[in-house]
């Protein structure tokens, strides 16, 4: 998983074939977001603010499942 510079998000990973985005939060653990286009993942990696991008473009926009 690529580590990112964020006070809230520790790592992100993407499964292109399945369009799954895995996000590891520093405080609340890991979540999977389903149906995320690759372009959104790439923009997420390159966003000036990882947390702001997550809140505006990912959070509450894709089906989500908490990972153990």
Describe the structure.
There is one protein chain. By secondary structure, the protein is α+β, with helices and mostly antiparallel strands. It has one domain. It has two helices and four strands; from the N terminus they run E-E-E-H-H-E. Strands 1-2-3-4 form a four-stranded antiparallel β-sheet, covered by helices on one side. Strand 2 and strand 3 form a beta hairpin. Helix 1 runs antiparallel to helix 2. This is KTSC domain-containing protein. It comes from Microvirga brassicacearum. InterPro entries: KTSC_dom.
Q: Percent range for helical residues?
A: 25-40%
Q: Please give the order of strands in the largest beta sheet.
A: 1-2-3-4
Counted up, domains total 1
Broad shape = globular
**Rounded to an integer, what's the Rg over CA atoms?**
11 Å
Low-confidence stretches: none
Output the helix-strand order.
EEEHHE
Sheet/helix structural class? alpha+beta
Q: Separation of termini?
A: 16 Å
Per DSSP, the total helix count is 2
Bin the strand percentage. 25-35%
Oligomer: single chain
The description of the largest β-sheet is:
4 strands, antiparallel
| Nearest-integer average pLDDT | 94
Query: What is the strand tally?
Result: 4
């Amino acid at each position: 998983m690529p580590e990112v510079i964020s006070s809230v998000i520790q790592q992100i990973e993407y499964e292109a074939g399945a369009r799954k985005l895995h996000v590891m939060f520093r405080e609340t653990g890991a979540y999977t977001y389903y149906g995320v286009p690759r372009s959104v993942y790439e923009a997420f990696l390159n966003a000036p603010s990882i947390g702001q991008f997550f809140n505006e473009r990912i959070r509450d926009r894709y089906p989500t499942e908490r990972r153990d």
